[in-house]
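Structure ticket #2291
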Amino acid sequence: MDIALRNNVKTQGAGERAMIFAHGFGCDQNMWRFIWPDFADDYRIVLFDHVGCGGSDISAYDAGKYGSLEGYADDVIAICRELAITHGVFVGHSVSAMIGAIASLKAPDIFDDLVMIGPSPRYIDDEGYTGGFSEQQIHELLDFLDANHMGWSQAMAPVIMGNPERPELGEELTNSFCMTDPEIAKKFARVTFLSDNRSDLPAVKARSLVLQCSEDVIAPKSVGEYVAKQLPNSQFTLLDATGHCPNLSAPDETVAAIKAFLKGPPD
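Resolution: structure written out below.
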């Protein structure tokens, strides 16, 4: 199957070096519309939708392949190979931060820099680790989604987005969740919230930026700090932004942080 059709791949920009943007659970590439234009003069921008999301080919969804984050990472690698991308920049939001980390381990030549926005290698608390949720809370969340996809979307999206004084943001995320195929959303949610990628982090060679919102119910500050500490070559930036989607709620601050990181440390 043609990769461009399968993943609804779109390319923009004039730069030689590629910057690929990967959206989070229940979203699509439209979530980057306030971010990527600021990089289009300097980078070749690559936007895509994970299979089962946005404008992707839903018929390409395979429960076996996408039963782990590795299946999604394999798609990222395939897109990069198709577009002859090496030494690029990967910008991943939420679950896609871990997808990018996995892709960089499987194909070390494709990304020199990883930008992780609201990453979490494990959502469930463990001994010596605070993920932000008990195992019971995660299973209750997944059971709610299984029972009522629309109700879950309407209840959870505003909480995930935060910024209650700007209800239009929560409404956009709600609509995005509701447009996702319900059966695929249920499976992707289980893969997202039950994964444990902590052991992958110390092996990541790419220079990494962890962007953490000051208040995030999905990925609390302690998780972002943990990710940055486990990555061998990382920078941790705490944003003033709140909620889990600063790419929508605080694009200027998000762009500025990414640009500062890509410039590298001052001489």
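Closing remark: The first helix runs from residue 3 to 6.
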